[in-house]
Amino acid sequence: MVQGEVQKFLRSWPQLTDEQRDTLSRIIPTDRNTVVIFSSCGETVCTWFTSRNFPSVLGHPSGTFVEEGVQFVISRAHPGDLPSVLRFMEASHRPEATWFEDPEAGTFQCIYRLKHADGGWRWVTQQLLVLSLTRAGLLDKVLMTFYDCTTQQKKLAERHTAALAVKRTNSRLL
What we know:
Blueprint: H1 2-12, H2 18-27, E1 34-41, E2 45-50, H3 54-58, H4 62-68, H5 70-76, H6 82-92, E3 107-115, E4 121-130, E5 141-148, H7 150-170
Antiparallel strand pairs: 1-2, 1-5, 3-4, 4-5
């Protein structure tokens, strides 16, 4: 579902070359738990595309993200995770990054809790891939993904708790 939507969008985006479209279509996730967004953060600030699963994954209408931009994340990030989210955003906007010399430097990721519209917290993995820079070398066009990793994070927490229980049971001190 998401892959088809994204490919249709890529075909309609005149700024991309065929090579860029092919490259992007190979890296776009196809998971229904992953929201895909194309945005511009440079000279023109706008969002061109959000996948239709935005409301089902993140719990809010996609128009909310389009209207609020980066504030969408900042205002909904868990207070305990907000410092990490802000460092992630700052790192992705640094002008000295050599995004195109080292592809690893052009991808950023952060895992944090995001407030869902139902009032609960969802763990999300947000990735940002730099597609282009402004003339000044700052972030311009980006591909963002938000993956709901709540289930995986809960399993990790359960394993950690179980490991602590085993250590506590085997501890002579306790």
